[in-house]
Amino acid sequence: MTDLSSRNPDWWRQAVIYQVYPRSFADADGDGLGDIRGITERLHHVAALGVDAVWLSPFYPSELADGGYDVADPRDVDPRLGTLDDFDAMVAEAHRLGLKVIVDIVPNHTSHQHPWFQEALRAGPGSAARDRYVFRAGRGEQGELPPTDWQSVFGGSAWQRVPDGQWYLHLFAPEQPDLNWGNEEVRADFRTTLRFWSDRGVDGFRVDVAHGLAKDLDDPLRDVGDIGATGEDALPHLPPGSHPYWDRDEVHEIYRDWRKIFDAYTPPRTAVAEAWVPDARRALYARPEELGQAFNFEYLEAGWDAEVLRGVITGSLDTARTVGASATWVLSNHDVVRHTSRLMLPPGTDDNAWLLSGGHAPRVDEAAGLRRARAATLLMLALPGSAYVYQGEELGLPEVADLPTEVLQDPIWEQTGHVRKGRDGCRVPLPWTTGGPSYGFGSGGAWLPQPPVFASYAVQAQDGLEGSTLEFYRRALRLRRKLIEGESLAWAPDAPAGVLDFARSDGWRCVTNLSAEAVPLPPGELLLSSTPVPDGGMLPADTTVWLA
Q1: Which of 181, 234, 439, 517 is 20 to 30 A from residue 527's alpha carbon, by CA?
Q2: Is 434 exposed, middle or buried, given 0-12, 13-18 or 19+ CB atoms closer than 10 A?
Q3: HEC profile for 145-183?
Q4: SS3 for 426?
């Protein structure tokens, strides 16, 4: 494939990016854990889909206290996953295949195994080493109480006490101490990290917890009390930008500094923010002088409801337009229940309760779920902006909701006292073949058990099979590349209730029937449908079509 995007610095504005969770993609050495060489060997599969870029979740040295997001060295590869030479070979192969490469960076925290944090523990209170992190004395007569009531996203206090009596901040797992971004040494080190990967050919960065870096660390630290702070997506009703540790206005100074680094390369390096903030605040991260793009989680969370989705789509496009960014769309990722299963849960169903039931309460009709997921995907791919596709969704993989508790790896399970099951069900290794010890994932087993039904979803089972989900994705992505030009849409004024109908500025039309009954199919040449459309001029329920 020719790397068309190398001649277009704005390639990312309407790109399709394929997310790889490295430990679950492909295992080249047979140890049960996915690795960099496994990714390289399977990149032809990604390229054949017709996507523009591959995004790698963390592959850095890590003890996996949080699935790799506890980084011990942000400028190296975990030895279990390979070497920097392996990484360079992977980037070279991706570029040969016409794929851009995006990597995750984790600037809010490090691993507790990071040399800086180990130095901080040895150095003691008041040291320069401790100032790279957030250490404070405790409250109470003996300092036995946490410095504030701040809570970890994973459950419990966000403070951990060390033997000398001080406490350190961890907004996620205790193994993930938060960095102090008021410290110039921290800022300089991340500039080095951005240049390190950019110099190795990386084309862009996904910024983890982009809204969490800046914190109000002036003493005395503020409690949050009843204003709420138990989840990173549950910002309390405070003046925008004034929460003690989420989405503070000062964070944007950091990204303006990063943009100078990105723009020093040709073409400029891209970036996308993971920022769990309200719509209008998210646009700030996507400004061209900052990261340029931000994930749109409202779309993922909207459910299967035409009116809600139309509002989210319209609002997201309008918000992105205010800062000159393009919108982003995503249905699944490494943190949420796969949309093949999630979209079939009745409105109001608690995802965690469903996972705790092993996927039995309620039981999901997998065939119906796949039908709805394909319709949702074709709708997403018709929208102006960038679409992010999570590994395995091109196979129609369902959530593995019935993983035994003894195999769970996500720290959420233990940290919440077995109240929240966590995210392992969407991270089960991919099936490549219909047989073998791990369905082609590797010559050994897999670090999370794959259900027998995965054999029917394997690449080998779907490759070349007319009507399979894999061939559907390939066809949709090839067609999208031919059709996409402008960045606007126009809603049809006469769409029936429960139907989303819009025309793209480049002369084609997308119609999705989210209602329970078939509706009349609008006139036009049928280019593609998510499921077969019978003769008779009716569009079935849970079906999307593209029309010329």
Answers
A1: 517
A2: middle
A3: ECCCCCECCCCCECEEECCCCCEEECCCCCCCCEECCCC
A4: helix
The tokens describing 21, both together, are: 């969770």
Q: What is the pLDDT of residues 75-90, one digit of tens each?
A: 999 999 999 999 999 9
Q: Find the largest Cα–Cα distance for the chain.
A: 79
What's the pLDDT at 172?
A: 94
Beta carbons of 42 and 20 less than 8 angstroms apart: no
Q: Report the candidate in 218, 192, 62 with the shortest Cα–Cα distance to residue 134.
A: 218
What's the residue count for the chain? 548
Q: At what angle do helices 251-262 and 184-199 cross, to 10 degrees?
A: 30
Residue 236: per-residue pLDDT: 54
Closest C-alpha among 250, 319, 314, 326 to residue 288: 326
Q: Which residues 6+ apart lie within 8 Å of 535 measured at CB?
A: none
Q: Check if the beta carbon of residue 21 is closer than 8 Å to that of residue 391.
A: yes
Provide the strand spans (E) within 286-366: 328-330
Q: Half-sphere exposure (CA, 13 Å, Cβ side) for 540?
A: 13
Residue 52 has which token pair?
Answer: 């523009």
Residue 87: the pLDDT is: 98
- Between CA 372 and CA 353 the distance in angstroms is 22
Q: What is the pLDDT of residue 485?
A: 85
- How far apart, in whole angstroms, are the C-alpha atoms of residue 400 and residue 451? 8
Question: CA end-to-end span of the chain, whole Å?
Answer: 27
pLDDT, residue 4, reads 39
C-alpha angle 19/545/380, rounded to 5°?
30
Q: What is the pLDDT of residue 232?
A: 47
* Element housing 299 (H / E): helix 297-301
Q: Which of 497, 495, 533, 492 is nearest to 374 (CA)?
A: 533
Mean pLDDT by 10 residues, the chain (548 residues): 55 97 98 97 98 98 93 98 98 98 98 98 97 97 96 92 98 96 98 98 98 96 66 59 93 98 96 91 96 92 94 95 95 96 93 96 94 98 97 98 95 89 97 96 96 98 97 98 91 95 92 96 95 90 97
Q: 467, exposed or middle or buried, with CB in 10 Å at 0-12, 13-18, 19+?
A: exposed
- Residues contacting residue 483 through CB under 8 Å, at least 6 positions apart: 504, 506, 508, 527, 546
pLDDT of residue 1: 30
| Location of structure tokens 């006469």 | 494
404: Cβ contacts below 8 Å, ≥ 6 apart: 449
CB atoms within 10 A of CB 267: 18
